[in-house]
Amino acid sequence: MTDDILRMREITKTFPGVRALQDVNLSVRRGEIHAICGENGAGKSTLMKVLSGVYPHGSYEGEIAFDGQECRFAGIRDSEQRGIVIIHQELALCPQLSIAENIFLGNERSRRGLIDWNRTNHEAQTLLDRVGLPESPVTTVSDIGVGKQQLVEIAKALAKEVRLLILDEPTAALNDEDSAHLLDLLRGLRTEGITCVIISHKLNEIAAIADRVTILRDGRSIETLDMGADDVTEDRIISGMVGRDLEHRYPPHEPSIGAEAFRIEDWTVHSPVQRDRVVVADASLSVRHGEIVGLAGLMGAGRTELAMSVFGRSYGVDVSGRVYRDGRQVEIRTVRDAIRHGIAYATEDRKRYGLNLIEDIKRNISAADLGRLARRGWVDDNEEYRVAEGYRHDMNIKAPSVLSVTGKLSGGNQQKVVLSKWIFTDADVLILDEPTRGIDVGAKYEIYSIINRLADAGKAVLVISSELPELLGLCDRIYTMSAGRITGELPRHEATQERLMTLMTTLTSKDPAR
Amino acid sequence: MSSVSTDVSTAPAGPPPAGPARTTVFGVSLNIRQSGIYIAFALIVVLFTILTEGALLQPQNISNIIVQNSYILILSIGMILIIIAGHIDLSVGSVVAVTGAIAAVLMVDYGIPWPVALVLTLIAGGVIGAWQGFWIAYFGIPAFIVTLAGMLLFRALTLTVLGNQGIGPFPDPVRTLSNGFTDGYFGNVGLGVLGGADIFSLLVGVLAVGGVALSQWRTRTARLGYHQAVDPLPVFLLKIVTAAAVIMFVVVQLARFRNLPWVLVLLAVLVLAYSLVTTRAVFGRQIYAIGGNLQAAVLSGIKVKQVVFWIFVNMGVLAALAGVIFAGRLNQAGPTAGNAFELDAIAAAFIGGAAVQGGVGKVVGAITGGLIMGVINNGMSLIGSPSERVMLVKGVVLLAAVAFDVWAKRRAAR
């Protein structure tokens, strides 16, 4: 029998309306680096939250055994006491505190309730040496870069005498040099006997560092591959991630494609927090009337940033590039400009950016173009009601009336309200960011039908999605994006999940469209 | 479009869509979060009527409640817009003081005709609002900080203008606006045991009732024309009759005393206008959108900065109006005028059902909230309570009102 430090058996976790994990099994050997792979939404982060106690015992089904003992964590503190430490994708450091203070946050080196600063800084220095970070312990965290902050997080984990270190997308925000350093550090920790679980989209990194890899798909554990023994390549991992079942989950659609409606050229966007970091680099794409075009890419590839920066500079700084509508170059500086030029953007996060959840359906639908329902600044609320009722009927929004508050609708119905809102602006170009995220299967089919209808009405639709089967089932043409660049363009009949995933995970820019 | 098929049977069931928290009273469904405030107001009035053995509703006392609280009510109208947008204004007390001082300097020291001076004062209030609105909307400093600074700045400005003394007296028309009553243009009429009452006041009351009834009826018919759900006819009539009874009671009492206070006429116009703006105007609706979800409002193309800027300008103008009325009522502009008015105005808005997170609130609610505090003030002083006890009760009422709102929201979220 192998020496497993961690065994998770038959883990099932359900959220209202969604089964996030189903009978997931994961076993990690002592002292190995174990990678977890899967598409966005496959359940990786949920699984790690179950493991670390974010979702306490009792909120999921299944068993967790750590070091042979069954675990029933009530919270993160419990799992940390056992030596399980998770480092989240969004770093959890206090930017205004020093490195040393962050390392011992909640774990302070103190004597009789007073912090022992000498010991704090001295031990912090030892830990910094261990992770290879040449900074003083008293440096403020906000003064160091993201790569170094990641190392501080690891030092913090080491301070807790970590035995199982979980890293969620540790290199997503790092440049190549910092990533290489981080991977070296993980190898070093392995020789010290620390077990690592790493979640990553970067398959080349996984191939370089992991001993074994477990693949999740649609909330299930598919297989565990031994990177040494089996003949495992990146392609092998991809085929595990995407699966091969493309059922009849998509309504049939015969496209009738017209002239070009929307084109961007050489679109470049910089991050608003790190102005020197390029988030979108020289991206060019086009969508024609009646056409449904997909934009595929993993988290952090820059898809949403691309869409939002086009939509009236809603994201990013130092934005450059050109936008064409129906062949004519247009200048779009604000959201109103975008709406005026017939461009709509339905956000990926409808609760935070899409809906006023405390308002009713009617007022959400009219929000982006209220002026159309008004004369001399006064809204005709009866007309507004009529319009909204029309959308409720057409879109099959399941609510007693348009006076129902949107916060109480299910995800699918909320999405229909968002779509109604943008259709009401009479947009010709609809950019739909993850239009079916968090929506159940039946409602997804309805959303796909609506998208098809929009295309049939001559609208140009750009669909951003992390679900490859969805793009393959819906789109006439698909672009792939990776690390801020458009890395490929495939017509529907040439696109396969494997080809897309390969293009989505390349880090070099090879642009067959040019 | 009806070709869309839904495979609901295989889909996991989502939460059933539901309306706001409702409770049923005598078979009439009530939105407790919205109507709770009016019920509370009614209960408080009944309570103090009993405690004061009817003195609360005597003609002169009703007139006093209105005149004594008019400036707070005016401030609360501006404040509710700001709170709906998710901001706050702590400076209004100081703005009342400085605009009162400006009005006094213009009217008394420079002898400028009062209508011109009034307009100039309102403009000054607008400029003050624009100053604060600029820092909040365009520079991005939280309103809490900007208006806290404004509270100090404009108090300092008041003291600079006035020194340590008041300026007065004000011209008669200004005093009439603050303190005075409409003339008995058509003489008196006998109301039996109630004695004589002013015909003009009664006429205004009847017209107001008629206007309310007519506009409500027209709204109802228009909605029916669009197949919208409306109250059943008996409920509708009950609401109209209740409103008419309350209005007529107040008007008859006032007509028996000294006719209608001018500030009541002014307040009625303001309440009507601002209610319309908040419910029907594009501008007003955008305030709710901003407070409800700022990000979504930005991504819907609403000019958030402009809207926020203008609601602060509006607050400045209303504060200036309150400043003139307050100064006119005391017949002098003093350095301590308007002290702690901001707290009363903010409390009125929150007691009146505004949400701390923004996005929720009504002009009529804020007015009711202000009146609740006014009635507590007045009623407790009638029964001879010491001022510390009045303060205690007002604090408890404010806390209870917001606690109720939070509770109702949590209940509704289930």
UniProtKB/TrEMBL annotation, chain A:
Topology in the lipid bilayer: Peripheral membrane protein
**Family annotation (InterPro entries):** AAA+_ATPase, ABC_carbohydrate_import_ATPase, ABC_transporter-like_ATP-bd, ABC_transporter-like_CS, L-arabinose_ABC_transporter, P-loop_NTPase
Q: Which Pfam families match?
A: ABC_tran
Q: Which domain of life is it from?
A: Bacteria
GO molecular function per UniProt = ATP binding; ATP hydrolysis activity
Keyword tags: ATP-binding, Cell membrane, Membrane, Nucleotide-binding, Repeat, Sugar transport, Translocase, Transport
Q: Would I find Nucleotide-binding among this entry's keywords?
A: yes
* Segments forming domain ABC transporter: 6-241, 262-508
Q: Does the keyword Transport apply?
A: yes
Q: Where in the cell is it found?
A: Cell membrane
In terms of CDD domains, this protein maps to: ABC_Carb_Monos_I, ABC_Carb_Monos_II
Give an example GO cellular component term for this record: plasma membrane
Q: What is this protein called?
A: ATP-binding cassette domain-containing protein
UniProtKB/TrEMBL annotation, chain B:
Transmembrane intervals: 37-57, 69-88, 94-123, 135-154, 189-214, 235-254, 260-277, 307-328, 340-356
Give the UniProt subcellular location, in the record's own words.
Cell membrane
Keywords, alphabetical: Cell inner membrane, Cell membrane, Membrane, Sugar transport, Transmembrane, Transmembrane helix, Transport
Q: Which GO terms describe its cellular component?
A: plasma membrane
Judging by the UniProt lineage, the source's domain of life is: Bacteria
Give coiled-coil spans as residue ranges: none
Q: Which GO terms describe its molecular function?
A: transmembrane transporter activity
Describe its membrane topology: Multi-pass membrane protein
Q: Which InterPro entries does the record match to this protein?
A: ABC_transp_permease
Record flagged with keyword Transmembrane: yes
Primary role: Part of the binding-protein-dependent transport system for D-xylose. Probably responsible for the translocation of the substrate across the membrane.
Mind telling me what this protein is named? Answer: Xylose transport system permease protein XylH
